[in-house]
Design a protein that fits this description.
The protein has 326 residues and is an alpha/beta fold. Helices cover 32% and strands 17% of the residues. Helix 3 (103-113) packs parallel to helix 5 (138-151). Bound molecules: S-adenosylmethionine and iron/sulfur cluster (SF4). S-adenosylmethionine binds next to strand 3, strand 5 and helix 11.
Length: 326
């Protein structure tokens, strides 16, 4: 099996695949409230084009794919697409990141498609605060989460972006909720992606503070569950619940980065915090061969920069997280 290795010796075995840049929510740190400047429909890769690109990735050694967005459940036929991707030889793990507003409707189809693991964004259990932070209705997300649990997804991980004086005080309630329902809870530091992410930097809080506060209430055991990504996990004693800390700002993890992203317009972004990218769509639509497609993917991996510069150059990134596929 060939492997994708970048010029810093990192093996890239994980692709985050954005299936749409659209979203039904407007999380304050992600998308501007009035945003509607979406990618033209004809620039979005079709299911067949996505399948072709993912097949090329898997033949080059990619083992894990996460469907993301924007909100992936907005894409028509998402379960059929997932089903096709899940069947690709070499793919070991197909997962999904969602805001879960539409999960109640799609949970069973998505589970049947071959997706096992689910990440759900949820920053608070307070309906008014949820409305203020996202523009949406909390009850839809809770219904979606319960449907996902009933459908048998495992693990279900809750991603909570922590903002000072906004929802940092909600961490304990979120953990109790996750203990009650058997969910993993992951805390995330806000990143300066686009104007929205940069504005949210004023609410930045070091996750060490959250860890210390929780440690006063819960017995936390370090060093469990290595995981395949950047989260550092701890176990809540006497439960099978783990909590993770994702700290791109306070402790970056670029030296172990194992992923690239494909946006819905067919561009490979090699780093969340940098612009280095390669557009596959022109090749796909100009009749490239599978070997040419794979050669382009290898070229893209070689462009992957050593690290992000969120701290040094927070003004750098104009892309919103929803455009790249967070
Ligand atoms: N809509 C889906 C969701 O919310 O899970 C998938 C896409 S969303 C862009 C993926 C993840 O990016 C979410 O967990 C969200 O909280 C995170 N995110 C978006 N903007 C961010 C920012 N500026 N800093 C940190 N995380 C961010
Ligand atoms: Fe939508 Fe996810 Fe961005 Fe929130 S974080 S606006 S749910 S894409």
């Amino acid at each position: 099996m060939k492997q994708l290795t970048d010029q810093f010796g990192r093996t890239i075995e994980y692709l985050r695949l954005s299936v749409t840049d659209r979203c039904d929510l407007r999380c304050t740190y992600c998308m501007p409230k009035d945003f509607s400047d979406y990618e033209d429909a004809e620039h979005s890769l079709s299911n067949a084009e996505i399948e072709r690109v993912v097949k090329a990735f898997t033949e080059l050694g990619t083992k894990r794919i996460r469907l993301t967005g924007g909100e992936p459940l907005i894409r028509k036929g998402i379960a059929e697409l997932a089903h096709k991707l899940a069947a690709l030889p070499g793919l070991e793990d197909l997962s999904l990141s969602t805001n879960a507003t539409r999960m109640a409707k799609y949970a069973d189809d998505l589970k049947a498609s071959g997706i096992e693991r689910l990440n759900v964004s949820l920053d608070t259990l307070d309906p008014d605060k949820f409305k203020r932070l996202t523009g949406g209705k909390l009850s839809k997300v809770i219904d979606g989460l319960m449907a996902a649990k009933a459908a048998g997804f495992k693990p279900i991980k809750i991603n909570m972006v922590v903002m000072k004086d906004e929802n940092d005080m909600d961490a304990e309630a979120m953990l109790n909720f996750c203990i009650e329902h058997g969910f993993t809870l992951r805390f995330i530091e806000t990143m300066p992606m686009g104007d929205t992410g940069r504005d949210a930097q004023s609410q930045y809080i070091d996750l060490q503070i959250i860890k210390q506060r929780l440690a006063e209430k819960f017995d936390l055991i370090p060093g469990v569950m290595p995981g395949g990504g950047p989260a550092r996990y701890m176990n809540v004693a006497d439960t099978d619940i783990n909590i993770g800390f994702i700290t791109p700002i306070s402790q970056h993890f670029c030296e172990t980065c194992n992923r690239v992203r494909l946006s819905v317009d067919g561009t490979i972004y090699t780093c969340l915090g940098q612009e280095h990218n390669l557009a596959l769509r022109p090749l796909l639509r100009n009749g490239c061969t599978d070997d040419e497609l794979k050669a382009a993917i290898i070229r893209a991996i070689n462009l992957k920069p050593e690290k992000h510069e969120f701290n040094e150059k927070p003004e750098k990134l104009v892309r919103f997280m929803s455009m790249t596929g967070g």
